[in-house]
Structure formats: structure tokens, C-alpha cells
Amino acid sequence: MQNTSIQNGELVIISGVKKYLKWNILKSLRVRIILLVILVGIVPAFVLRGVVLSSYEKREVAMRTAEIQNQCTILCNQLSDANYLTGETSEVLRSELVQMSNIYSGRVMVIDHDFRIQEDTYDMDKGKTIVSEDVIRCFQGKGTSNYDAKNRYIEVTSPILDKGAEKSVGVMLISVSTDMIVDSVHELDERILIVCLTIGIVAVILAFSAGFVMVRPFQRISRSIAAVTEGYDADYLHEQTYTETMLISDAFNKMLGRMKVLDDSRNEFVSNVSHELKTPLTSMKVLADSLLIQKDVPAELYKEFMGDLSEEIERENKIINDLLSLVKMDKTANTLNIKSENMNVLIEKILKRLRPIAATRNIELVLESFRPVTAEIDEMKMSLALTNLVENAIKYNKDDGWVHVSLNADHKNCYIEVADSGIGIPEGAIEHVFERFYRVDKSHSREIGGTGLGLAIARSAVVMHRGAVRVYSQVDAGTTFTVRIPLTYVS
């Protein structure tokens, strides 16, 4: 029993492997090209073979039928002139009937108006009665012709007219074998078959050649992509054989460039994180070492050093919290808690929380709502983004300045604008302000507690909502951030 189970298991595994290999072979582009070229070469050849043979057979039968009908017409006229059915039997005409029968390897019968067979070149049914549809139609003055492919014969009827009354007094019926035509068709078929087989062999050779040659550029692309694991090279792939390979090369090079940018950005980010986290730690170590090396430290100095340590710890904590916010956004990018929110109320809450901070520097915080706006958003993430924008506008402002927040919408999007009368951003720095840890004025940012992550967090949250954020600024003339998000979130 155990051996049987093992054998059955092996059979199942072998069957599965065969199916897998078969499926993968059929998925191969090379195999599909080979099969396509073979089909394109062989199928039309065999279709053409059938058409040629059928046309040839029909043509030969039509020519033989027309020839027999002409001979029948001539003999019928002679029989009519000689009153063959009403007068004496003419041996000359009979010999002509026999001669016609011998020439076409067929049988000739002459039938009178009583449907009695008066003459039969086979001498089998002479004197017997024959009634058939073709004979009846022929007595009505309409000659007939039929081809029986199964039994290989052509049957033709032709009326014998009374010369004076112009009516049918008899019928000539001739049955002719088509063995010669069939033999000719078979001979032609053999020749065509040889041609088809030759075409088939050529098609197979061309198919395999085309399969290997046409797939070769894609193999080079595959090797080039595999080589990426060894390192990045600028414009690594250059395959110009086909339009498709050119498009793949361009797309791959763009992807590779993007990967290099991301890799450089990741390295820079790690470097910046290390630097930003190390700086407060260094300051704390210096302060702690200063306390340790001194003896009998006065209480006032001790409190001052502890206050500095507390500030550095708070700064470290803020950097870590901002980093955690970015990581959390990256992880939950596809799991937004989308709900329909009143944007007017949401912005009012944000400004209410930030007004005490603005009041410390006598900065006027104003909201202008042009209309009630409701949008489908993740309230927590959008609040974080807008809070960072408004908080930055307050931090990098001038004393006694202003921050103007406006809310508007059209049929499709919600528009939020945060403008301030602050210090502004140099033109060369505008394109970098959304980068992580980028700060226009590092010394000033440290003084006000900036980490360089606020705008990166804001942009990430807006992009997650399928929106966009832009910045316009002039040095000493203020900065304006515009946010556009769809009213209806589309996943």
C-alpha cells in the first residue's frame, strides 16, 4: 500500500511538471513566433492545394460535359434527319453511336417518345422502358447534364427533334466515365503535395530562424536588466533593433535613472538623519561632560546646563516624532481613513490651535472662506499637512506680520492658500523646500526649532489625497503655498 501511494505521488508530480513545462513553452515568445510562421507558411499552401484541385476538377468536368453535349447535338441532328426513330435503322448511325461510346468510354442510349430504349451501345437494356426526371425534362426540349463525383460519371441528355414539327420525338442519353479526370486530379495532387511539403520544410526552417533572430534583442535586454544587480550605469540599455525594444530601452533607462535618484536620495536621507540626530546628542554629551569635570558646580549653572539639556532632548524628540510621522504616512499610503469633512470647520480648528503661537509675535492670523466646502479626506493627515504649512508661515514670519489663509472650491477641486509676510525663500531654494531635512537657512531654522521635515510631511499628505502643493516666494516679500485636492477621493 505504501509503495502504491509513493508511485501515485510520483505520477502526480511528474504530471504537474509536464503541465508546467508545456505551459511555459507555450508562453515563450520564440515558440509563438515559430508556430505563427509555420502556420502562415503551411496553412495557406494546403488551402491553396484544395482550391486548385477543386477548380481543376470542375474545369475538366465542365470542358468534358460541353464537349459531350456538342457531340450529342450533332448526333441528334443526324438521327433527326435520318428519321432514325421512325424509319429503318441505319447501320452508319449505329456505328457512330458505338464509336462515340468507345471514344468517351461511356454508354449511349437512344429513347423513343414511349420511353422505350431503341438503342443501347452496351446491348443490355434495349427494348426496356426508362423513366427518369432528366429524360422527362429532355422530352420538354431541355437538355440536361449531371456530374456524379462519387460514382465518377457524367450523364448528359439531348433531345432528338422532329425536323418538321420541331418537337422532341426521342432522347439521347450518354453516361461517360470520369476516371481519366480523377486520375489527372490525383496526379496533380501528388505534384502539389510535393510543393506543399517543400513549402512546409522551408517554412519550418524560416520559422526557427525567425524565432531565434527576432527574440535575440529581447534576450540582450534580459541580460542587461539582470546586470543591473551588479550596479547602476547611466543610460545602461541601448537596444534599437525594433521600435518596441527602443521603447523598452527608453522606459528602462528612465526607470534606472529614477532608481539612481531614489538611491542617492536614500543615502542623503540616511546621512541627514544621522547628522540631525547626532547634533543634539553631541550637544548633550558636551553639556554632561562639562558638569562632570567641574567640582562644586553652582546651582545656578547646574540649572542652566540642565535647561540646555532639556532643550536638546526636546529637539531630538521633535525630530524623531517628525520621522515617525513620515514613516507612518509611507506605510499607510494605501489605507487612508477617507471621510466627508467640512473643510471650513477643519481649517478653523487648525487656526484656533495656532493663534496663541502667532500672538506671541503679534502675527495676525486670518481665514477667508469664499464658500462652504466639503471634501473626502483623511482628517488626521490633512490636518497635519495644513498645520505644518500654517506653522511654518508663523515661524518664518516677521514680528507684527500676517498670515492669510483662504479656502475656495470649484465643481471638482478644493483650493487652500497659505500666504505670509515673512522672510521669503530664495529662488534657487524653492525647488528643494519639499525635500526631507532641507532648510533654506540652517542657523535660523535651528533657532526656531525647525527640523526640515514639516514641508516633506505636508507634501506627502497632499499627494496621498491625489492632490498637489505649490510654492511661490520672494525674499523679504513673503511666501504663498497653494494646495489643491479633489473634492471626491478616487482610489
TrEMBL record:
Keywords from the named record: Kinase, Membrane, Phosphoprotein, Transferase, Transmembrane, Transmembrane helix, Two-component regulatory system
BP term (GO), one: cellular response to phosphate starvation
Catalysed transformations (reactions): ATP + protein L-histidine = ADP + protein N-phospho-L-histidine
Record InterPro entries: BphY/WalK/GraS-like, HATPase_C_sf, HATPase_dom, His_kinase_dom, HisK_dim/P_dom, HisK_dim/P_sf, Sig_transdc_His_kin-like_C
Enzyme Commission no: 2.7.13.3
Gene3D superfamilies to which the protein is assigned, alphabetical: 1.10.287.130, 6.10.340.10, Histidine kinase-like ATPase, C-terminal domain
Predominant subcellular localization, coarse grouping: membrane
Domain Histidine kinase: 272-489
Entry GO MF terms: phosphoprotein phosphatase activity; phosphorelay sensor kinase activity
Official protein name in the record: histidine kinase
Protein species of origin: Sporofaciens musculi
